[in-house]
Amino acid sequence: MKTHPLRRTLFVALVILLILCCFLAPYAWIVASSFKNQLTLFNDVTPLSWKAFLPVGGTVENYRTLFERTNVLTALLNTAIVAGGQVALTLLLCAMAAYSLTRVRFPGAKIVFVLILLTFLLPIEALMVPLYQVVSGLGLSNTLLGVMIPWIASPFGLFLLKQAFEDLPSELEDAARIDGAGHVRIFFSIILPNVKVPMLTLGLITFLFSWNSFLWPLVIVQDPAKQLIQVAIAQQGSPTQLPNWGETFAGATVATLPLILLFLLLQKYFTQGMTTSGIKG
User: Fold this and answer.
1) Separate counts of helices (H) and strands (E) for the chain
2) What does residue 19 show for φ and ψ, rounded to 5 degrees?
3) 261 and 146, same structural domain?
4) Is 241 helix (H, G, I), strand (E, B) or coil?
5) Which of 17, 58, 117, 271 has its CA 20 to 30 A from that of 9?
6) The pLDDT of residue 281
């Protein structure tokens, strides 16, 4: 009887370890392969061996070539500018929209909210042509502003913040109105300070989405000096030559590191925000 809880604990630990290995193994392979030349990389995976997940006989040649021959640093800076701008504009726009739908009474508010959520079901591929026409018509094609503008109105962001705003007690606003506060003061002084965790969660999700975007930057930006990191990595090779997978994996590693560091710093707020907003996952 005493060994039963121990066996159960060991079984759960093994299952968790197996799941963890399934998630970490691909990234470990990418990082390890980024330190190998083309021949070593293929020898370690045909047949597959433990050497594929460790930088055995590693070299930094792939990273040296990556930074010397491609505009990785410029692409990283462009991506950081776009992601930061998109986060700021998305938080501001979604917060104001959520406040309007939860605190300003007007006919058809629920219908407006449902219609906005329905746009979340549209695939990005179906929006490419009309978005390109609109952005080009505004003279924003081949600019960093044109990369971020179409995505700042986030239906998911509106849903997330609307849930958070509805959980706030109305007594806070009633007390502020007695003191003569209007909508602007209530929004910035009462509402926003009390929804920091959902705001940080939305900011993190928006940053991840923007940093990993590929198709839209590929379509709207033609100047290599203004390209984002994901597209720059994909275009670093020559169409007439076989890809250098070690160099490609080095680029993928460099592009992923900022996201890992950001998530490690903000993971507490991310989990809190997803839980308190009523989203389980």
Assistant:
1) 14, 0
2) -65, -40
3) yes
4) coil
5) 271
6) 38
DSSP state of 190: I
pTM (two decimals): 0.84
- Identify whether the C-beta of residue 89 lies closer than 8 Å to the C-beta of residue 179: no
| Number of domains into which the chain is organized | 2
Q: How far apart are CA 41 and CA 174, in angstroms?
A: 65
Boundary-marking domain end, from 33, 59, 85:
59
Compute the distance between CA of residue 136 and CA of residue 145 in angstroms, rounded to an integer: 12
Contact predicate 70/232, CB 8 Å: yes
Percent composition of the chain: helix, strand, coil (DSSP 3-state, to 5) = 75, 0, 25
Q: Is residue 116 part of a domain?
A: yes
* Integer Cα distance of 147 and 229 in angstroms: 13
Positions in the chain whose pLDDT score sits under 50: 1-2, 278-281
Residues 53 and 70 grouped into a single domain: no
What is the domain extent for residue 21? 5-59
Buried b (16+ CB within 10 A) or exposed e, 6-35: eeeeeeeeeeeeeeeeeeeeeeebbbbbbb
Q: Is the same domain home to 49 and 86?
A: no
Q: Check whether residue 19 and residue 92 sit in a common domain.
A: no
**Residue indicated by tokens 């293929």:** 42
- 228 and 245 share one domain: yes
